[in-house]
Design brief:
The complex is a heterodimer of chains A (about 230) and B (about 80). Chain A is mainly alpha-helical. Chain A has seven helices and no strands. By secondary structure, chain B is mostly helical. The termini of chain B are far apart. The mean pLDDT of chain B is about 75. The chains are: A mainly alpha (about 230), B mainly alpha (about 80). The interface between A and B is medium-sized, with 17 and 18 residues.
């Protein structure tokens, strides 16, 4: 993790995503119009969250196999930064939805009741709440080994629950959110080649930023462990 | 003497500003930053925030590296 070249890659890709994402041509669609550019930011938050949670569960399994405390620290920090990206994805989605889904002619309360029951939103909220519970569970156990073991098992459960709550149920039920009939943001009807040119680098860039923050937090925690022991 | 030179300098500078203003009024979209509904201003603002965050991360990275070296020496 001490190699530095991927940090440069992260900075370059994100700078490209910001400049290209705001200035390059996008397809013109009704209702969403220019706000389709949010794809490079809002959707990337969710993609990064899924990737970070996958790495987190990988390290949880690794901890259960090897009992190395380093895997436990890695697993926890990946989960925390995944949650951070998920919360940011939720906040950006709120802003985006209030200008595309909400009817400007009806009151905000009735718009809210129409939007808030969207299965995609509820599924994402459930998934995030389960991960919040992961942190609560973890920090409520004092014994280091017990804490690591129980939270690794719970991490696997939380990851397994991502499948129904954000990948299966929103596709079965009707949703306002685009991509219900296929994969959101990967459907050729939603985005074209011009957008893919920015979208994929943006996903990689945001994920690398998450990994960078995780690596800093892990190094800090390892230092703390060393000075304590 | 000094004061009068300074006064002259300031009046020159302000006259340049007023001249510049007249020019922009005549050609209102001549500046790059004012093209396309001033979208470049948004790009500049977001880039400024992004550079700030990245510089902070780099600084943090270096600090932790230094700490790691120190603890490696001590133990």
């Amino acid at each position: 993790m001490n190699k530095w070249w991927w940090k440069i890659v992260c900075i370059v890709l994100l700078t490209y995503a910001i400049i290209g994402g705001l200035l390059l041509d996008v397809p013109h669609k009704p209702i969403i119009q220019e706000s389709i550019r949010n794809l490079y930011f809002h959707v990337c938050m969710w993609f990064s969250m899924m990737i970070l949670f996958t790495i987190s569960v990988y390290h949880a399994v690794k901890y259960l196999r090897t009992n190395a405390i380093r895997s436990d620290i890695l697993s926890r920090q990946y989960a925390v930064i995944g949650i951070l990206f998920g919360v940011l994805g939720y906040c950006t989605g709120m802003i985006w939805a209030s200008f595309t889904w909400a009817d400007p002619n009806s009151s905000s309360a009735s718009s809210f009741s129409a939007i808030a029951k969207d299965p995609k939103l509820i599924g994402a909220a459930i998934a995030l709440l389960i991960y919040f519970a992961y942190l609560v569970l973890r920090d409520s156990i004092n014994d280091i080994d017990k804490k690591a073991r129980i939270s690794a098992v719970y991490n696997i459960f939380a990851f397994a629950f991502l499948f129904p709550s954000i990948w299966i149920i929103p596709r079965i039920l009707d949703s306002l959110h685009p991509g219900g009939q296929g994969n959101p943001a990967l459907n050729p009807k939603d985005i074209d080649a011009r957008m893919r040119l920015v979208f994929y680098p943006a996903v990689i860039g945001w994920t690398l930023l998450g990994v960078w923050i995780v690596s800093l937090k892990v190094r800090m925690n390892v230092l703390k462990e060393k000075t304590l022991l | 003497m000094r004061k009068s030179v300074l006064f002259l300098f300031i009046s020159l500078i302000t006259s340049i500003f007023s001249f510049a203003q007249q020019q922009t009024e005549a050609v209102s979209m001549a500046d790059t930053m004012r093209q396309n509904g001033k979208i470049y201003v948004v790009v500049a603002v977001i880039l400024a925030i992004f550079t700030g965050i990245i510089l902070y991360l780099i600084r943090l990275d270096r600090k932790i590296s230094r700490l790691e070296k120190e603890t490696h020496k001590n133990y």
